[in-house]
């Protein structure tokens, strides 16, 4: 994994806005349709090139080969069946924020504004049915091998460009997942870890950086009002223990861990503070950690790193632009956000990132504008850090 040794490097979280025509084709004809596969390959090539043109140093495939970030793996595992949602299924749309602001959420649900940019029909297609485990979980590698091949093809003219691929963490796969096969929750979680590990390993073996997405661990505090802090931290520690089982033996310097608070467009007044989970986050067997740091609920948390020590050799990737507002950050503000972290952690331990994925969160024009100012702000910060 590259480090910011002579300038501040830039990256983002993963999901970018899939072209509307590609989303339509994948929804209507399927992601494996012979006439869709070339469209997908061409779209990945273009999104990689566009990231490079925007000044992003560590790029990805935009997650164009996937549906919803936490449920795309349903189609990559035997043993999971999609069914009509039952009346007994635990509702996903609940939580402390919804209890505190019922009027806002009723309005937002009615106007389909919770996630911002809702036009990627393929992204949301996996929520139509309820996933239920009905047999032993077995990984199907065809989709990840296709995604790896598409990303390698996109990098053919610039093989030195560092690239990452996001994959969901076991605790986030389990959200909304019915279980009719495994005897206990622990058995289910261990099976999820053993299965998704194969996708983790395939990405690293292909020469890419593995990014593990785990938004549910912090979001579980909001979504589970029955938690007090002690029980919540036990849940978080148990979730990380399962993830570390999946990561065991994989090279930490090829892994980065993404933690965020769910990224829906709501008040987030009930987010768990980073201070309450930072020590647990740092237990993940990863070389870098991505956190939200640009939205108004979490921007102040850079002060945490005055007291919490980042382990030796690790990298922090704070978000310095955010999906949570349509306002385009000024490059000077981006530079200021970056230097808040470099002053506390050292520039070689910081890469500039984004709060969460832009795909299905913000209009494409604005998402690309934010990546451009991310690069511009990193250049300003670099000049001040190395030449002041």
The chain-level mean pLDDT equals 95
Main beta sheet, described?
A: 7 strands, parallel
What is the strand tally?
Answer: 10
Q: What would CATH call the architecture?
A: Alpha-Beta Barrel
Supply the number of helical segments. 12
Strand order of the largest sheet: 1-4-6-7-8-9-10
What is the CATH third-level topology name? TIM Barrel
Distance between the termini: 27 Å
- Our Rg estimate from Cα atoms comes to 20 Å
- What's the helical proportion of residues? 25-40%
Strand content: 5-15%
Description:
With 388 residues, the protein is an alpha/beta fold. 39% of the residues lie in helices and 13% in strands. It contains 12 helices and 10 strands. The protein has helices spanning 20-29, 37-54, 96-100, 102-110, 142-154, 170-173, 185-205, 216-223, 229-247, 278-281, 331-345, 364-387, and strands at 58-59, 77-83, 130-139, 162-168, 178-179, 209-213, 255-258, 288-291, 315-321, 353-354. The strands form 2 sheets. A 7-stranded parallel beta sheet has the order 1-4-6-7-8-9-10. It has a 3-stranded mixed beta sheet with strand order 2-3-5. Helix 10 (278-281) links the parallel strand 7 and strand 8 (288-291). The model has no long low-confidence stretch (mean pLDDT 95).
